[in-house]
Design goal:
209 residues, alpha+beta, four-stranded antiparallel sheet, two-stranded antiparallel ribbon, 6 helices, 6 strands, elongated
Length: 209
């Protein structure tokens, strides 16, 4: 039996592989960003499951800092304003109350106006306290935001009109829900990561042609 030899010209394959090697940073950033935005949508959607009728401001709390070819790291985080009151639900601790009265107590509605989500509208307390018939103070041992009776109301009623308690301060307490922000995102990345990498590689191959 005679001998024979086989020779393959691999120069094109080597060039293609070299080109693919150059595309790896791009493919990585595509996969990472795809996972990051999926995580963002998942976290935002979870807000409606964790909280009862949350504001749209809360259901859009998550943001993404995108990965690039030079830095293949995407960061999924809470926006600064929402992080102020949502962080205790992730790390534990008392409800965030801001600097509303300086004591750290919660201000809860009693007979005052709330928005469609059952919360005190932003800026309302400041506007109310600018009125002459509204004041913050302690009456009969109850500290809150009170409204004085108007002269018109006093004339209409035979009995003397009473102060109206609009909002009451209550001692703060630890949050009773958990956000599971980091755990939820980590589980999603572990579950969906291989598919994201595959899709990114296929996209890279298509766009390289």
């Amino acid at each position: 039996m005679g001998d024979f030899s086989i020779t393959l010209d691999t120069s094109r394959i080597q060039r293609d592989l070299s080109d693919m090697q150059k595309q790896i940073p791009y493919a990585t950033s595509v996969a990472v960003n795809s996972l990051a935005f999926d995580a963002m949508r998942l976290e935002n959607s979870a807000m409606s499951e964790i909280f009862d009728h949350p504001r749209p401001f809360t259901t859009r709390a998550t943001q993404v800092d995108k990965a690039t070819k030079s830095d293949p790291t995407a960061v999924v985080s809470l926006r600064d304003q929402q992080a102020k009151y949502l962080t205790p639900y992730e790390t534990g601790g008392d409800h965030w109350v801001g600097a509303r009265d300086g004591t750290g107590d919660l201000l809860v509605p009693v007979d005052g106006r709330t928005d469609a989500y059952g919360q005190i509208p932003r800026g309302l307390i400041k506007r109310l306290l600018a009125r002459p018939d509204v004041f913050a103070g302690t009456v009969r041992g109850i500290r809150g935001i009170w409204q004085r009776p108007t002269a018109r109301g006093a004339r209409r009623n035979a009995a003397p009109a009473k102060l109206k308690l609009l909002y009451m301060f209550r001692a703060n307490k630890a949050v009773d829900k958990h956000l599971d922000f980091e755990q939820r995102a980590a589980e999603m990345v572990q579950r969906e990561g291989p598919k994201a990498i595959e899709a990114a590689i296929l996209k890279t191959i298509r766009t390289a042609r």
